[in-house]
Design brief:
This protein is α+β, with helices and mostly antiparallel strands. It has helices at about 55-60, 135-154; strands at about 1-5, 10-15, 20-25, 40-45, 50-55, 70-75, 80-85, 85-95, 110-120, 120-125. The protein is about 15% helix and about 40% strand. The chain has a five-stranded mixed β-sheet. It has a three-stranded antiparallel β-sheet with strand order 2-1-8, with no helix packed on it.
Length: about 150
């Protein structure tokens, strides 16, 4: 399986390459007042607003430092999302027998599927469609509608 390895502040995460549509260097994001820390803003792509999740804020509790070179990984799974990381470390290939089953402390709040070793570190393989619970998805839909109405007024 091919994986994209990306870095938050303190840890690496891997995403199945089949879930990745593209990687963008930090484009301009639109924001709304009072968004939660885990929502960096909205990315305008092809006449639509896509929520950008700050992965470090989700998992480490601290937002990613703003930098023009922070990558945004756009997923192509159901409920397309854009994920803000500190860096992308590259691609790796791992056979299923190289995966390690999860221990409870490795589950990354239930979004990791397995672990794979990169250098001396065990990296969680996350499933993008599991990143949000239904309540968060509904909030994103609402904020997306507000952002769309705002863009239509301009």
């Amino acid at each position: 399986m091919k994986l994209l390895v990306a870095r938050m502040k303190k840890r690496r995460l891997a995403l199945p390459l089949a879930s990745v549509e593209r990687v963008l260097l930090r484009p301009r994001l639109e924001t709304l007042p009072d968004l939660p820390a885990w929502l960096a803003g909205f990315l305008q792509l092809a006449q639509s607003s896509m929520p950008v999740l700050d992965v470090a804020a989700l998992f480490e509790g601290e937002p990613c430092a703003w930098d023009l070179y922070n990558p945004i990984v756009v997923t192509q799974d159901e409920g397309r999302l854009a994920l803000l990381f500190s860096a992308v470390d590259g691609l790796m290939e791992a056979a299923p027998e190289e995966f390690r089953p999860l221990q409870s402390q490795d589950s990354f709040q239930g979004v990791a599927a397995a672990l794979v070793q990169r250098s001396q570190e065990w990296v969680p393989i996350i499933v993008p469609r599991l990143l949000l619970i239904d309540q968060e998805r509904r909030k994103l839909e609402h904020w997306g509608q507000v952002m769309k109405a705002r863009q239509e007024r301009l």
